[in-house]
């Protein structure tokens, strides 16, 4: 009998009744379900991911599929603000999200963050309006209608404008049948493939004396069989699969999307709380990442380049500094799954709200403070988890898919200089020292005395305000002055303006020669500026510039 495993994330604000709901729906629980953790019981809140399941008939719209039974795996995510990284990790393995809302409180801060995570990580959502048993029966329907109307208004601006809203009570089981029926109607066949490398996201690890070490998690891609060799990426160790279970039922094969427990030959489980297990050699450990950046619209601040964020990929969260750059090219990128190293990109200081409305791709190099094991195309979320959890503000800043990564610890010096072309626009301003002839001037104040002016020979400059264009021909003397040639010559207006400014500067003013006009006008004479614009390339061992 073929069983479709469908992963449903249960997310919401702390104390909205998520765990009670999972418990009321489930018939089989994993070793860590329903707050079995002693700390969870002591504090009365969910502190870690919990997994449980129930089995129902295949819905009518899927009766022609290859599956005969539907197993719903519930991923109970914690709701406390301080555990947002655990929520993000749990949300990346789900096929549909149940957003649980306490009807007596409505949308709260972490409800909103969970909604954003849902928008990033999945395409299907149901809303559970929980705790309706706390509303007096004669006021219940009116309260449900009022809250539903408010929520509809909120969801209008999200990717879930028509999401079903199901009122129920997990504690009294009121209306749970309608919830299960609605869930059944919205189940779909996720993309599942047994081909490709085996990649397994581990969320719990423990040992069983005499049997081995058990890793529980979700199969992200490929398949695995008993006796296969698998690699524990962070430990760089290979182990053999001794046995497998899916919610306490022995199985001999598992494919993408399945929630399983893998028993392998013994290793210390304390070394692997969470992580990635895969076919040997498939997963790399990256010290730097490149992503295409998508700004979370509810993040109130601009995303500043060269600042640090919490970077979450899978179950791992580390600090990372981002360097932002823009693709100005007009050509279409037909492959958004790969980063194009053949282009040149412009560095930008920030990703503002205005950028979100422009049709330009913004990318980021993320310099990780600690390495991350992940596969390309993994979802990555950048956040500010050090923000006060009591502040009513969104901490999720941006997200994107991993387009490329760097495995060498010294990638900034060894790989980037020859691989990534990112430039910063620069502008220098100098002034005319003297006019040599109709086509030549000597300039000053554009360079320092120690500057190697030969680097800028043949670079174009422009005179303002008249706009004549020339090029730097050579250095002049040892003090940082330089010679500029204008092939079309200097205009008479420019020469006159320079002479006027020079004359006023040189002529001393005495009490006898000062006029009323001189007293009224304190403005200095207009000086002609020499403007040099060029591009300076980042990530280069030696200074590289161009125009």
Automatic annotation (TrEMBL):
Gene Ontology biological process terms, A to Z: selenocysteine incorporation
One of the record's GO cellular component terms: nucleus
Cofactor(s) of this protein: Mg(2+); Mn(2+)
Localization annotation: Cytoplasm; Nucleus
Record InterPro entries: eEFSec_C, eEFSec_III, EF-Tu_GTPase, EFTu-like_2, P-loop_NTPase, Small_GTP-bd, T_Tr_GTP-bd_dom, Transl_B-barrel_sf
Tr-type G domain segment(s): 3-191
PROSITE patterns: G_TR_2
Keywords: Cytoplasm, GTP-binding, Hydrolase, Methylation, Nucleotide-binding, Nucleus, Phosphoprotein, Protein biosynthesis
Catalytic activity: GTP + H2O = GDP + phosphate + H(+)
Region ranges (Disordered): 498-522
GO molecular function per UniProt: GTP binding; GTPase activity; translation elongation factor activity
Role according to the record: Translation factor required for the incorporation of the rare amino acid selenocysteine encoded by UGA codons. Replaces the eRF1-eRF3-GTP ternary complex for the insertion of selenocysteine directed by the UGA codon. Insertion of selenocysteine at UGA codons is mediated by SECISBP2 and EEFSEC: SECISBP2 (1) specifically binds the SECIS sequence once the 80S ribosome encounters an in-frame UGA codon and (2) contacts the RPS27A/eS31 of the 40S ribosome before ribosome stalling.
Protein's name according to its UniProt entry: Selenocysteine-specific elongation factor
Species this chain originates from: Rotaria magnacalcarata
């Amino acid at each position: 009998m073929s069983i479709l495993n469908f992963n449903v994330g249960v997310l919401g604000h702390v104390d909205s009744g998520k765990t009670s709901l999972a418990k009321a729906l489930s018939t089989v629980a994993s070793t860590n379900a329903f707050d079995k953790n002693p700390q969870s019981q002591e504090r009365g809140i969910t502190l870690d991911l919990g997994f449980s399941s129930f089995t129902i008939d295949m819905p009518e719209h899927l009766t022609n599929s290859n599956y005969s039974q539907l197993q719903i795996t519930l991923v109970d995510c914690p709701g406390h603000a301080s555990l947002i990284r655990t929520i993000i990790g749990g949300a990346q393995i789900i096929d549909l999200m149940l957003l649980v809302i306490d009807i007596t409180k409505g949308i709260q801060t972490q409800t909103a963050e969970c909604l954003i995570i849902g928008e990033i990580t999945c395409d299907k959502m149901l809303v559970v309006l929980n705790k309706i048993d706390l509303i007096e029966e004669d006021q219940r329907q009116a309260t449900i209608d009022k809250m539903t109307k408010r929520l509809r208004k909120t969801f209008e601006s999200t990717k879930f404008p028509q999401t079903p809203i199901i009122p129920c009570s997990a504690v009294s089981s009121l209306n749970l049948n309608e919830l299960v029926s609605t869930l059944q109607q919205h189940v779909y066949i996720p993309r599942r493939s047994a081909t490709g490398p085996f990649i397994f996201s581990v969320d719990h690890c423990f040992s069983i004396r005499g049997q081995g070490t058990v890793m529980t998690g979700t199969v992200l891609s490929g398949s695995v069989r008993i006796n296969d060799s698998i690699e524990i990426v962070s430990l760089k160790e290979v182990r053999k699969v001794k046995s497998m279970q899916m919610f306490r039922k022995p199985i001999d094969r598992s494919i993408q999307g399945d929630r399983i427990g893998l028993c392998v030959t013994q290793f210390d489980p304390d070394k692997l709380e969470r992580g990635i297990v895969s076919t040997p050699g498939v997963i790399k450990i990256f010290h730097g990442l490149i992503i295409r950046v998508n700004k979370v619209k509810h993040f109130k601040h601009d995303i500043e380049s060269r600042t640090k964020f919490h970077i979450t990929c899978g179950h791992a969260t580390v600090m990372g500094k981002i360097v932002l750059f823009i693709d100005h090219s007009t050509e279409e990128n037909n492959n958004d799954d790969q980063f194009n190293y053949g282009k040149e990109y412009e560095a930008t200081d920030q990703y503002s709200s205005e950028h979100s409305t422009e049709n330009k791709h913004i990318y980021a190099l993320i310099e990780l403070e600690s390495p991350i094991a992940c596969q390309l195309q993994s979802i990555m979320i950048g956040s500010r988890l050090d923000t006060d959890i009591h502040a009513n503000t969104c901490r999720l800043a941006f997200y994107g898919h991993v387009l490329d990564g760097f495995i060498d610890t010294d990638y900034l010096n060894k790989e980037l200089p020859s691989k990534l072309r990112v430039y910063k626009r620069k502008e220098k301003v100098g002034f005319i020292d003297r006019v040599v002839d109709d086509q030549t001037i000597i300039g000053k104040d554009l360079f320092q005395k120690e500057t190697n002016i030969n680097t800028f020979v043949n670079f174009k400059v422009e005179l303002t305000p008249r706009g004549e264009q020339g090029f730097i021909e050579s250095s002049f003397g040892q003090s940082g002055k330089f010679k500029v040639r204008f092939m079309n010559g200097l205009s008479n207006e420019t020469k006159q303006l320079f002479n006027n400014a020079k004359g006023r500067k040189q002529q001393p003013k005495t009490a006898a020669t000062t006029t009323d006009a001189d007293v009224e006008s304190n403005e200095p004479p207009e000086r002609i500026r020499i403007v040099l614009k060029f591009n300076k390339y980042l990530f280069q061992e030696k200074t590289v510039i161009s125009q």
